[in-house]
Structures are given as structure tokens and as C-alpha cells.
Design goal:
three-stranded antiparallel beta sheet; two-stranded antiparallel sheet
Length: 220
């Protein structure tokens, strides 16, 4: 199964009426998408909804290759290569969304993505070894695999943080809780309020929620 981030982005954009409209452009001075016709900004809620739709699209592909693995239609090494390609596709797409589109991605951004992927591939190697050793049921494999996809939202936040470094740079950041259950670490981060940029970790990082973290970040 051959995948690339442009193909995945195209699939997501076809499902999303907002991003099918060419009038949306990324304002590098403000670090936000703007409708050039009306001047209206794309809300962070809509941007995060796009990241979730991206994950949903990838989850469908993950289910396909995992079913093929369980049915003996894919060898474990084939499944691992396909999954690695999917992880690469998704982290890249999420980073691009956070960064403000492919036109705002530069060589330094790809180095950031590469560092993320290096760590993810290392975890995937151990995952494949656990499967080969027979330590996991099919349901456990599916659940653990989905965590890899959920974790890709961390690349959206890294891309967004990078986009804030262009133009007038914000001095402060804060973590905001979503209306779901949170771990003690996320509650502590949110309670800190406005702090200097770089003080707090991005959502999914350094918290017990890990890939399931639903917090978000604001800058000023």
C-alpha cells in the first residue's frame, strides 16, 4: 500500500467544505487562517476538527491493513512498512495543518518532522516485536495501533508553535482543558495560566493522557 501526505490531505480536504474554498489563506503575521473575502478567521475549533478528520481517514486505512495482517494477507514486515508509511503521512499532514499549509513549510520544518518520525519508528519496531512474540491479542494490537494515530496531533501543535515564530512573536502561552476527563499533569498545566512561551509542554507531551490528550494551547 503506497501512501503520501498529499494524497491523505486531498482525501481530508474533499471531506471538509472549509478547505475546499481557495479564499482561505494563512496569515503569517497573525499565525491564523483568514478568509480573504470576508476577513473572517478560521477558529481553532475548526482547525482541530480538521486534525481529527485527518486521523479518522488514517484510522480507516489502519483497520484495513491490520485486518489483512490478522487474515494472513499481509506478513508482519509488510504490515509494519505500511504502518510506518501511514505514520509518516499523518505526522506530516498534521504538522502542515498546524504550520499553515505546505507553502509555509521549509527545510527546518522537515527536520522537526524527521526527529518525530525517528522516535515513532523506534516504538513501532518494539510494537512489531511484541506482535511477533505473540504477546498481544488482535484487539490489543488495534487499540495500541490507534494510539499511534491519536498521537499525531502532537505534530499539529508543534507546527502551530512554529507558525507563531513568524511575524510578531507572542510572549505568553497557556494550556486550556477540553470538557473531558484530564490527568493531574494537564490540570496543573492549565492552572498555571499565562506563562512565557516554551514554559509548558505541548498537548500529548509529559502527561498521563499521552496520545489521548485533548488539551489545546493559546498564545498572546
Amino acid at each position: 500500500m503506497s501512501l503520501n501526505h498529499l494524497t491523505l490531505e486531498q482525501e481530508v480536504y474533499r471531506r471538509d467544505a472549509v478547505f475546499r474554498r481557495p479564499e482561505w489563506e494563512f496569515d503569517t503575521q497573525l499565525g491564523r487562517y483568514r478568509d480573504t473575502t470576508t476577513g473572517r478567521f478560521l477558529s481553532e475549533r475548526d482547525a482541530l476538527a480538521l486534525t481529527r478528520r485527518t486521523i479518522t481517514t488514517a484510522t480507516e486505512r489502519l483497520k484495513l491493513i491490520t485486518d489483512q495482517l490478522s487474515q494472513g494477507l499481509l506478513r508482519l514486515d509488510q504490515w509494519q512498512r505500511s504502518f510506518a508509511s501511514l505514520i509518516k503521512t499523518l505526522h506530516t499532514a498534521q504538522y502542515i495543518i498546524g504550520r499553515g499549509g505546505i507553502r509555509n513549510v521549509f527545510p527546518a520544518d522537515f527536520l522537526e518532522i524527521a526527529r518525530t518520525l525517528k522516535a515513532q519508528y523506534r516504538f513501532l519496531d518494539q510494537f512489531a516485536r511484541d506482535i511477533a512474540a505473540g504477546r498481544m491479542t488482535l484487539n490489543q494490537v488495534r487499540a495500541r495501533a490507534n494510539l499511534y494515530l491519536n498521537n499525531t496531533v502532537s505534530s499539529y501543535w508543534r507546527g502551530q508553535a512554529r507558525s507563531q515564530a513568524v511575524g510578531p512573536q507572542p510572549a505568553e502561552m497557556r494550556r486550556l482543558l477540553a470538557p473531558v476527563e484530564h490527568c493531574p499533569e494537564c490540570i496543573t498545566y492549565a492552572a498555571a495560566g499565562w506563562v512565557p512561551v516554551g514554559t509548558l509542554p505541548m498537548p500529548t507531551e509529559l502527561c498521563s493522557c499521552r496520545a489521548n490528550c485533548k488539551c489545546r494551547v493559546e498564545y498572546r
